[in-house]
Amino acid sequence: MFRKLILDNTGEHDDLDFKTEPTNEPTISKDILAMANKAGGALIFGVTENKLDNSFEPVGLTKPTDKTEFKTKIGHYLPDQLVYEVYDLQYQESEYPKLANKFFRIILIEYTPQYIPFLAKKDGGGIRKAEVYIRHNSSTIPSEFSHIQDIINRRLATGYSSARELSLQEHFDELKQIYSLISVGEWRNWQSDHYEAYFEALNDDDGSYFEANPKYPKENFEDFVVKMLELKKQIITSMVRDK
After folding, report:
1. Helices (DSSP H) in 76-203: which residue ranges?
2. Which domains does the chain have, with CATH numbers?
3. What is the pLDDT of residues 103-144, one digit of tens each?
């Protein structure tokens, strides 16, 4: 599929863009945002355009950069809900001399209209935090009023509403309420239950004992909160380390 796309391509489209090198992360991030706001698509690096006839030549990447480092750099500009993936390819087949021993990098951007519009997380290098970018006539441009209306209509058509997205406190409040619906156990009277011999040494002053509910979660609410706290600390640490 990739070979056919490269060798028999019909040029760039709103959902397809060819680039020579993946070196300008802010510009690349802007293109990703624009495609995500339109209908998804693909960015292919390692292809150059002939300005004379507008044809495209698969030249490959001169020196592929580390993919993890690349994703980290563009990730600084992209919102968390934007779904994309980066792939690196190398061809060695002799029947395709134009592709042989050449590296290519592909970014596939998923179309998730329930989250549009996507905006950059920060400014930098030609990208603005408050701007909504869109693909139009094979180019990435700042959106106009008609584009915004189209984006809103496409989001509304999904029936998705962000109003139900809960805050962290609301999630914990709901979880605590669910825990409250399950009884931890109950206090019982050992004499009335005929457990005199077994509980004689364990009974309280009033002759009662606590019987745990075997269906209550082994991990109680406070233990769960402590575990979530540790996970959150790890996430924050990794975010600080990546910057």
Report:
1. 145-157, 168-180, 196-199
2. 2-161 (3.30.950.30), 164-242 (no CATH)
3. 889 999 999 998 888 998 888 888 988 789 999 888 899 988
**Is there a cis peptide before residue 117, judged by omega within 30 degrees of 0?**
yes
Hey, which residues does 17 pair with through a beta bridge?
43
Q: Which residues contact 133 (CB under 8 A, 6 or more apart)?
A: 30, 33, 34, 37, 140, 141, 142, 143
pLDDT for residue 199: 46
pLDDT over threshold 60, residue 186: yes
How far apart are the C-alpha atoms of 195 and 189, rounded to whole Å? 9
Q: Is the separation of the CB atoms in 46 and 102 below 8 Å?
A: yes
Q: Concatenated DSSP letters for 100-132?
A: BTEEEEEEEE---GGGPSP--SS-BTTB-TTPP
The Cα–Cα gap between 6 and 46 comes to 10
Model confidence, pTM: 0.62
